[in-house]
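Input chain follows. Return structure tokens only.
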Amino acid sequence: MTRVHIICEGQTEEMFIADVLAPRLLQHGVYLIPSLIGKPGHKGGNVKFERILTDVRARLGDSSAWCSTFFDFYGLPPDFPGKVEAGKKNQIADKAACINTALQQQLTAKLGDQAMHRFIPYVQMYEFEGLLFSAPAQLALACDNSRLQLPLQAIREQFPTPEDINNNQHSAPSKRIMQLYPGYDKPLHGAIATLETGLDLIRRECRLFDQWLTQISALAP
């Protein structure tokens, strides 16, 4: 069994790892261990490089395990490794590669190559809610409001993939959902929507997310 620590930005991401990803990967011999960034008991968030460094160092101290991350690009601070450079890229895949590479390089500079060969950086483009647009009907069902399906589907159809949905304070995926449904509760509705949608559909719709899971799955003994 291969163990993989996943450092998560918030409770929703942690629940998604535990309830949706972990059971599937366990079938293939990969045991995911999600945890919130920061000290035990904290709510997560505040994804600063210094906090990531502390957490990654601790997880890689478990010398027989791997470590990865699950952070939203949208909420990263401007001084996050690669954030400014990624913002200058036009293609979503180039943005993701830029920020993941920068994070890997800066952590390697602090922790060394020997430990960091067991690290897989992952930043969700542009945020967790992008995954929910893989199935607008299921997102509407999770919110218990069928009238949301058509406007959510209209948003989805404006973009090549859910991961391309815009990245700013007005048009990020979560902002678009809250404009339509002010009662949106990320931990509650996000968790229900991913369970209703299913992992296979999310992977088909979200190529970058799928590539990350493929990397994790390849760690199976």
